[in-house]
Amino acid sequence: MWWKRLSTHNSFSTYLKCGAIFLLFLLSVLIVACGGSGTDSSLGQPKATMTVNLGQDGSPTPTLTAYSCSAWVSNTTPSLNTPVVGVYAKYVHNVDGNPQGVGQVQATAVVNWYDGNASTITATTTSDGLAVFAVSTANRAADLNKIVRVTVTFAASSNAPSCTVDGDHAAYFSLVVATGTPSPVADPTAHAIGTPCLTPGLTGQALSIPPTSALTPSLPTKHQTPTPTPMPTPTRTPCG
Questions:
Q1: Tens digits of per-residue pLDDT, 185-198?
Q2: Distance (Å, whole) CA 200 – CA 84
Q3: Cα separation of 4 and 14, whole Å?
Q4: What is the 3-state secondary structure (H, E, C) of 59-107?
């Protein structure tokens, strides 16, 4: 009797396990079926990919020109009281990537003042290609706080072609009113303080006065001459 009950119990548990396995398998099939029913069109556009090409398709770095020139002013805001403003220009030749100055070339600087008048200054380049122009600022109060542009042209020579510095590359400066730092003013109420003179003192040999004692008085001798007591000699201390 007991084995029938055990057989019935085992059959029920076996059926339960099989049913659970079948249900799990059925759910797996449903999940796969639902996941595969979507289309790629619902995912939007595919991700963009970027390809890095290390070949020679890109534009190479431009090479330096054979000849180049430049101009500048060391102090772009000189004071109106400055008599001369220094303008510098340089002419170089590119040799295997190394700039070398072009010397003995005549350079002409044109200073374009605000009032429309132009000043022309000439100079000759040194061995390192440097040309220095001294621009006078006399009687240029009308150009105060105005931009003054300076263009430079290097003439052609047997060593190099002509070269011009103008446009955005031109040198420039602007005259300003300089504000100086005030010098300290002496206090008129100040008085000189000196060392006061010392009061003259008396210096000399100190006298020893014995303590008073009860001595037996003696009668003076007739015609006894009293002995004088030496007095200290005063000495004056000079003021230093």
A1: 555 555 545 555 54
A2: 68
A3: 15
A4: CCCCCCCCEEEEEEECCCCCECCCCEEEEEEEEEEEECCEEEECCCCEE
Tell me the mean pLDDT in the region 143-155: 96
Tell me: pLDDT of 4 over 90.
no
Q: How far apart are CA 193 and CA 35, in angstroms?
A: 105
Residue 68: is it exposed, middle or buried by C-beta count within 10 angstroms (0-12/13-18/19+)?
A: middle
State the average pLDDT for the chain: 76
Which one, of 86, 136, 129, 85, lies nearest residue 107 by Cα?
Answer: 129
**DSSP sequence for 166-201:** -GGGSEEEEBB---PPPPPPPPTT-----PPPPPP-
What's the predicted TM-score (pTM) here? 0.51
Beta carbons of 146 and 169 less than 8 angstroms apart = no
Place of tokens 């030496």: 230
d(CA 120, CA 118): 7
Query: At 109, which amino acid appears?
Result: A
Classify burial at 8, counting beta carbons within 10 Å of its beta carbon; exposed 0-12, middle 13-18, buried 19 or more: exposed
Closest CA to 67 of 34, 26, 95, 89: 95
Q: Apex CA 128: angle with CA 126 and CA 129, to 5°?
A: 65
Distance of alpha carbon 150 from alpha carbon 165, whole angstroms = 9
- Indicate the helix (H) or strand (E) that contains 219: none
CA distance linking residue 122 with residue 109, whole number of Å: 6
Tokens for 55, please give them. 């070949």
Looking at residue 24, its pLDDT comes to 81
